[in-house]
Write the structure tokens for this entry.
Amino acid sequence: MLSAITRRAAYASAVALLFGCHHATTVRDIHDDARAAATSDTARIRADIVYLSSNALEGRGTGTPGNDSAAAYLAREYARLGLRKIELATTCPAMRPGVRECVVGRASYTQPFIARSAAAAHAGLPSELPTQNVVAKVPGTDASLATQYLVIGAHYDHLGRSPSDAMDPEAKNAIRHGADDNASGTAAVLELARRFHAHPARRPVIFVNFSGEELGDLGSEWFVEHAPIPVDSIDAMLNFDMVGRLRDDKLIVYGVATATEMRAIVDSANSVQPLKIDAVGDGFGPSDHASFYGKKVPVLHFFTDMHEDYHRATDVSSKINIPGEVRVIDYAERIARNIANRSSRLTYERSSAPPPKMSASGPGNGTYFGSIPDMGSAGDTPGVKLAGVTAGSPADKAGAQAGDIIVEFGGKTVKDLYDYTDAIGAHKPGDVVQVIVMRAGSRLALTVTLGKRGS
Ligand SMILES: [Zn+2]
């Protein structure tokens, strides 16, 4: 997940990683065997998450060998299942010699592209990173619906060893494993591919694993601009980004106002072992579904909410709630089947204006507050609700608490995460600012001494 807070941050992959060689070949066989031997959905999902977030893949940074290994793992699973390759109408970007193939006009599971990062260029780092999306199709059973598609997707890239994009720059070049962000979503897409392969729907379903998301939704943007099918033939796109931390049965579902029928579909699917669904209308969010919604495709984004390990080296597979993730997948599968089997197409609705373009002026100034926004409430009420604060942070020391709604920061009104990001960015480390929060219905002024990220 690309957060509003880190959207500005530069991508600072270690240059050396770009030219490293694959060393995961033996690890690869072990992990493919582990997955093949897994007999339950729970075991398969665990095997996928453990491998994708393992040290061998070094955090799957876009343009690194670990990211390429992850893509190869996904393509091998689609091949094992016998999913269809898609004829990708793409031109070949410049390849690293011997790393991957690109044959124009031939069906392939991979869609190569060059991830271009303005922030990296600004920071004097390599700004052109060769990478790939992974794409596969399960054909539908109803010939009359063969040209209407459901897209199920998730990004598989993460931060790699980049400290500048991380919330824990003090951990330097430690591997950011990205088990929740987004090995969890990647595993959800693989599992749904297995289920739809076993029991196809009336409409064809396209499974896409995006790269370059952490650099600004680059893989999904490339996909919608160079789609192997007309974008207006996509009925809906379901996005999984951070679905591995189900707590108190609470699942956030964004995008319920992006199609007339969507809220009823989301409600009726919550039938077996119901989850506590926090439904949010907005179709523009900090992840890949925004690229599709920008093309007027109805979307949903499934999200088990923010946590303290977000974009840190501590986002590891042992902290994933696998049974919880299975419940999210079961629920999402009912939604996916409803959309892919219905007789008529969904009716697109404009739920909100696109978010303001974030400045590409490079890395933030390192000002640190230490709040953990509750993403579920974003967009529906003015202000930014906190899911919590980081222990020992300036926010913590000033007395901010989970449940507080920030409505003003340093004299600036805060209506949403964008205002909030801008308000924090307008200050320097060491500044003393007044933060107004709503707590239990009353306004409360907190005095905060802002810190510096990583210190
Ligand atoms: Zn992320």
